[in-house]
Design brief:
This protein is of the alpha/beta class. The chain has 6 helices and 7 strands. It has a 7-stranded mixed β-sheet. A hairpin with a 2-residue loop joins strand 6 and strand 7. Helix 3 runs parallel beside helix 6.
Length: 207
């Protein structure tokens, strides 16, 4: 409870400081700007009767992971199995397994909604597509969420409409590395390996 309250106060302070400031991409060394509330379309991390189990609800995975290291991917492409985003989700899930002792967290947010989830008319098919992809990939370590294409959160996180996939690795609420991919230059297998290597390099020395 104390940790959650502290994070809320931190995010409130950062939001106040950023009010009126120009939107700009996050870079290494930046603090995480604010929480990111999304509809949790799929989450296989917990047992069904666990109080931590939150699928089919609005949830904030930033606060959920607290000060632990986190790898998050923001994706503007619709959920589908034969996509770079799907390959990335598999890689992220593998990293979480490898670095379970370090409490590495990961989540993928599909920012494909035209409006906030509560107001989106076409939300159910999009949520179902994300849930189906999660089941197909068996990427149980990586919750899949849905969020609006444009919102206060996307602006605070510096997510440009020109970027199809943005991957951010942060630790103790400080950005360590950012990767951005445009629609005409989606992540290749080598790009995904580079992301994996970066996380491994940052976490392995701590063992």
């Amino acid at each position: 409870m104390i940790r959650a309250t502290g994070l809320i106060l931190l995010f409130s302070t950062l939001a106040s400081a950023q009010e009126g400031a120009a939107v700009k991409p996050l870079k290494a060394g930046d603090p995480i700007p604010q929480t990111f509330r999304a509809f949790l379309a799929a989450d296989q991390r917990f047992e069904k009767d666990s109080p931590k189990n939150r699928p089919k609800k609005l949830h904030d995975l930033v606060t959920d992971n607290g000060l632990n290291p986190v790898l998050v991917a923001f994706v503007r492409t619709a959920p589908a199995a034969d996509t770079p985003a799907a390959k990335l989700a598999r890689a992220m899930s593998g990293l979480v397994t490898t670095f379970k002792p370090e409490r590495l967290g990961a989540f993928m947010l599909f920012i494909t909604l035209d409006k906030e989830y509560q107001l989106e008319e076409n939300r159910d098919p999009k949520a179902e597509a994300a849930a189906n992809l999660s089941a197909q990939l068996q990427s149980g370590n990586v919750p899949f969420g849905l969020a609006a294409k444009e919102s206060d959160a996307t602006k605070a996180w510096g997510l440009s409409a020109n970027e199809e996939i943005v991957v951010i690795y942060y630790n103790r609420m400080i950005v360590q590395k950012v990767w951005t991919f445009a629609a005409d230059k989606l992540p290749t297998d080598d790009d995904i390996k580079a992301i994996q290597s970066c996380v491994e390099t940052q976490l392995k020395p701590k063992r």
